[in-house]
Protein: Primosomal protein N' (Replication factor Y) (Superfamily II helicase)
Organism: Candidatus Hakubella thermalkaliphila
Amino acid sequence: FEPGHAAHRALQTADPQGFMEVELALRHTLGYPPATRMVKLEVAHPKEPVARDAIYQLAAALRPRAQPGELLGPAPAPVARLRGQYVFHLLLKSSEARLQTLMDNLPPVRGARLRLDPDPQSFVGLLED
């Protein structure tokens, strides 16, 4: 809980428009949606080393082609084990055209489940089918 946070101030002053303006400016400065696009790559497997190795292999394949700030992670998901699966993810953020270029030559993930989540709404790792 942060009483001084812009969201709380907006609620206290009944100023949702002001909050939206501050939030959008911050997102633009940091390169987050809607200023850019984002894709979450999520890898899961019942054995942690398999999932971890798969996400690190993806990151290693993407890193030479990614510009600074386009590749975030990899890291364990906020809920690192879900439904018997160890979950790791990484994020790509850039323009839609750049994301398409990065995703075009994505190496296959062997032995683990890969899920792509364009414009993710959550980073918890729900492993939806």
The longest strand covers residues 71-82. The chain has four helices and four strands.
